[in-house]
Protein 1
Amino acid sequence: MADYKEIVSKYKDVPGGIIESYHALQREFNYIPEDAIDAAAQIFDIPKAKAYGVATFYSYFQVGKRGKYIIRICESAPCHIAGAAQVVAALEKELGIKMGETTADGLFTLEFTECVGQCQATPVITINSKPYGDLTPEKVNTILAEYK
Amino acid sequence: MAEEMRILMRNYGKIDPLNIDDYINANGYKGLEKARAMSQTDLIEEIKKSGLRGRGGAGFNAGMKWGFSYNTPAGQKYVVCNADEGEPGTYKDRLIMENDPQSVLEGMAVCGYAIGSNKGYIYCRGEYPYVVEKLNTAIEQAKAKGVLGDFDIEVRMGAGAYVCGEESALIESIEGHRGEPRFKPPFPPVTGLWGKPTIVNNVETFANIPVILEKGADWFAGIGAKSYPGTKLMTLTGDVANRTFIEVPTDTTIRQVIFDFGGGVPGGKKFKAVQIGGTSGGFIPESLLDTAIDFDSMGAIGATLGSGAVFVMDESRDVVDVIKQITNFFEHESCGKCSPCREGTKRMHEMVKNIYSGQGTAADLDLLERLGTVMCKACLCGLGQAAPSPVLTTLQHFKSDYTSKFN
């Protein structure tokens, strides 16, 4: 709890700083711990419900644990017609988990996302925000190997 | 063959974007210097005269918008750059920010001087942390050089909410709230960020400002379509040979964009449809391809220019399959504040899924059309008002794709 307070407190005097503090928490932990929501509510002097409401509004924030590497697959129309579904199948098969799940070793989480703005190279995935384009099921293994 | 006209992208590949001296040597910050030598009202008149209209989707005259803030007395005013580009198939703002970030900062500083603001925010989407880093470097360099004077710029990062591209939702997000749109009026130029007069312009709009000042309003007004002058950055995706970006005058036709610049449909297949302006744009059939891309010409055929995304589909594509994906997108991205959008996007997706799986009837198509028409009128913000457009335009132009699913 002390750690969370320290991170969140840095943004206390930034107008509208709660979202910036959530970004900072995610940079540190890769997700927003439940207790950090309490800390944010106290520090920004708002009801806990509101602090929670802000955190859960945005799809890039996740309250509660997830994997070390978050793999996001774009499901917007340009990626869809470029074969995103085959990439999803390859990722699920390789990691042995379904979309929305985290591997047992806590290394990978699979999430759907909307457009990540790398549409010159559809279909696209990102791993902790780093984009990989022109994906094929064959390329999936090579890319995952970088993170294992 | 038509040619590209690189105004926004004039420095693309020619300067080191992270070296401010390169930008200054390429006439950078001359526009701001010129602006500061003018009176605020003359400056706003000059921008009005250029005819520059917002490049974010609404197409409002930029100078007129600035005038509203200038005319609203307040101790503090704000300039906000909307860098939350989230329209699927769009990456033009990223291109500008990565390749010429100083042009955006300069445009914002000009606006700051015009309306009487010393504080700017760039709201950059959460998907682009690597762009945020570049923007911060560019801001540090501009501050160190002193070119911005007393105008301060801060970058704020979004967190994956499409609705935050709507200006009042974006403002809510900067204030640290859920990104839900506000009731309007009052509009942001009068009552915006923390209740103060605020200009929210798109990245591409701001990037146009320095060169307008450098070369003059008349020069700019003479490029492209009269009612929507200048160039437009377009990003080509889908079934098109050159999946790339282009910058073209606004009187270029859709056909030129796809076939001259895009190289046409690959694999010997025939063209079927194009969706322009992002996922909320209308679908356009072959018969309307000779329309110019400018805002008003597109509006006249029930389509939009929007973000300038160009998503091409060949004859092998099933329109209902694509629409299923698009309606899924809107169900996910609806913020839930107003019920026509919250319920409408959900039911629309449900009906399309139903039709796709062969369980639809002709009555469903009538219901889809009725729901879409209601949403266009009743939704609180642009998201919900535009969400039915792909459904309505495909019902109009590609109805057989739907009816062929019926059992």
Protein 2
Amino acid sequence: MDSSIFIHALTGSLKLSVKLILIIVPLMVVYEFLENSRFFKKTLDFLYIFIKPLGFSKQASVSMLTGIFLGIAYGSGILISQSEQNKLSKLDVMLTAVFLSMCHAVIEDTLVFVAIGGNGFYILGTRIIIASIMTYLFYRYLKVKIKDSQV
Amino acid sequence: MNTIQAKQHLKKGFSDGLSVSFKLIKTIIPFYIAVDIINHTKIADSIGNILSPIMGIFGLSGKMSLALISGYTVNLYAAIAAMMPLHPTWKEVTIVGLMSGISHNLIVEGAILHKTGANAFFTITLRILVSFIAGVSLNLFFKVIYG
């Protein structure tokens, strides 16, 4: 193999790495300040208005909001403990899984693609819209199914 | 917010940022090198040629399939690493970002969701299907808006 191809690949990967550090670190600092501000807590309350029509109960909002912002491992960690304590209904578990499987850790995920030149508005917007539509469809479907099994 | 709190946030943000970056770099360097080298061989051309009709419906070139496959099986950072040597346009980055954002690290995350009571086969199939729908939709949207 031509060694210049390898050197080209190595320098390319290192350049990309440095670029990502320079973009991601300052943005995470800004995010940390936002997360701990009153504004952020208000945003979370605001978000609940939108997940309520999708069929989520108040109990599920803890897992949902953690999952959306921090990621599936962390969000589901809470979700596992909550479902084990029987705090969440089967419906909540399913809806949370449907939504979060498609839409989680949105800050970090969007950020890394913005860092390499993607359009964050389209990535995040489309993801939220599609996850919401799918969750709503499942909610309608599961609601009928649960009603049938109760009768 | 007082100075002590601000200092803590600054510290936490900085260390979180570094840890995200290093997590990224660990995957990016080997994948980037592998894909960049593969690109100089005929393997990439043949993979690209085979998959280009399918990738076309997402508005992506055939070679971008490497990025999607890396994202689906490993994670987003692998997708980025596989994509960058191909010099993608912002539209391609956005579409790959959306598709692999919806559908990534399928095996590991499928297993985690399985523990909460949602079948892994179900969540994995759903995510792949939805990512295809999302990719096609965003590509159509781009065609309408940007021509």
